[in-house]
Design goal:
Structural class: alpha+beta
CATH topology of one domain: Arc Repressor Mutant, subunit A
Largest sheet: 6 strands, antiparallel
Number of helices: 20
Radius of gyration: 23 Å
Number of strands: 13
Strand content: 15-25%
Oligomer: single chain
Strand order of the largest sheet: 4-8-9-6-5-7
């Protein structure tokens, strides 16, 4: 009976985690993963926590437990990265960590002699890339609102191309005064999987502001100053790493420094073809064929195989024919500029992308759109797991929002802004963090 009760509890936990803006379908690997990460006591509490970020007082009221008893349990979950606590200017708000960005990153940023890091790494890789249900659930229906977006290297921009401050890594850094540096979770995972050593340092995960304070407070990262942040940015440019950040225009909280050999986002695009895993920048690479010598460095540098060398011939004035190759953007381009940094002749530069790229205005908008795309918005609107009335409303509203014409209309240009504005007016802007 005890074994069956534990099995049912973890199945409830799986259902609870699957209602986040990043879906986590239940599989045998996910079952083993959550059993390793969450104790039965932790799983039982997670199942009862509200779906949206809430204060200790609100959580105590919804769960019927005393705040003094809840606080150490929540703090312990935060120390493991299974719950996130963020300061909203008045109080700490506690939020159950989704898989990404959440308990994958925080788990693989942890260090210590007694942690089963190799098994964790094996399970995360098997879940995200072996079974394929995870990526299919989040991007298999053409979902476009991902949690992260590419940042262009400014040094790769063509002359006269202007980008806005929210696309400039330096401007994002200048807007903050608190920073943190931790292990790259993807690189750390690949290390424990026995992959070849990466050219990039292990410690490259940089965060800013409230996110940096969370990571430092719970031991996932160390505080650094602005100059160190700028030095890391320059190092990533020299190493040809892809920069990515929070997929919002206002107050992004981190900058990732991604390599093609380790980064799960880049691997997701390259190996599965789900291009929405990482949202592009507003730029795209262009080739000036007259300057291209066919060296192929750009094709080797592109982390998503978006550059191909096209064979051809050229003739000189004496009629001598020579085999040549020319770079061509022949696939998905992130607009990161890594190919241009690798080009010795300046044949590749970043130009403005002709089609519009949607970057949500803020975290509220991104989370709402993610939830609408992935059929979990109703859990944010009616977030008390213990309420039968709200459970009924989740079922009714969830079914309505899943109707294809409704979802298509609310995600379309005509209604999206009015829909989000209506949620804000209803107090919905306090839902996500």
């Amino acid at each position: 009976m005890g074994h069956q009760a534990a099995k049912d509890l973890y199945r409830q936990l799986g259902t609870r985690l699957d209602q986040a803006t990043v879906r986590t379908p239940w599989t045998p690997v996910f079952h083993e993963l959550v059993t390793m990460l969450y104790t039965p006591d932790e799983a039982e509490l997670i199942v009862r926590l509200p779906y949206r970020p809430s204060s200790l007082t609100r959580i105590a009221g919804l769960t019927g437990e005393e705040a003094g008893r809840l606080l150490p349990r929540l703090d312990s979950l935060c120390d493991k990265g299974l719950v996130v606590d963020l300061w909203d200017g008045t109080d700490y708000l506690y939020m159950v960590s989704p898989l990404v960005i959440g308990f994958f990153e925080f788990t693989m940023m942890r260090t210590g002699p007694d942690l089963p890091q190799q098994r964790w790494a094996e399970l995360f890789e098997a879940y995200m890339f072996g079974e394929r249900e995870f990526l299919a659930a989040n991007f298999g229906d053409g979902q476009q609102v991902s949690i992260m977006r590419a940042l262009p290297h400014e040094e790769a921009l063509a002359d006269r191309v202007e980008i806005l401050d929210h696309e400039k890594a330096r401007a994002l850094i200048d807007a903050h005064s608190e920073f943190a540096l931790g292990l790259c979770s993807c690189r750390h995972e690949k290390h424990h999987l026995g992959h070849a050593p990466c050219r990039a340092p292990m410690a490259t995960c940089t965060s800013m502001g409230n996110g940096a304070r969370f990571l430092v407070r719970h031991g996932f990262a160390e505080p650094i100053d602005k100059q160190r942040m700028l030095d890391i940015l320059a190092r990533s440019r020299d190493l040809g790493l892809t920069l990515s950040t929070d997929n919002v225009r206002q107050d992004p909280g981190f900058i990732c420094h991604c390599c093609g050999c380790c980064c799960n986002l880049l691997l997701g695009i390259r190996e599965t073809g789900y291009t929405g895993v990482l949202v592009t920048s507003t730029c795209i690479a262009r080739v000036e064929s007259s300057l291209c010598t066919g060296c192929g460095r750009c094709a080797k540098a592109c982390p998503v195989n978006g550059v191909r060398m096209i064979d051809g011939t050229s003739s000189d004035r004496q009629g001598t024919t020579t085999a040549t190759a020319t770079a061509r953007i022949d696939g998905h381009c992130l607009g990161c500029g890594v190919c241009a940094l690798a080009c010795p002749t300046g044949a590749l530069r970043l130009d403005k992308r002709p089609q519009r790229v949607l970057h949500p205005a803020d975290t509220f908008e991104r989370v709402m759109l993610q939830a609408l795309e992935r059929d979990t918005l109703h859990t944010l609107l009616f977030d008390n797991p213990a309420s039968r009335t709200q459970s009924f409303m989740r079922a009714v509203v969830g079914g309505f929002l899943r109707l294809p014409p409704v979802k298509q209309a609310l995600l379309g240009d005509m209604l999206r802004s009015r829909f989000l504005a209506a949620l804000r007016r209803a107090g919905g802007d306090t839902l996500p963090v």
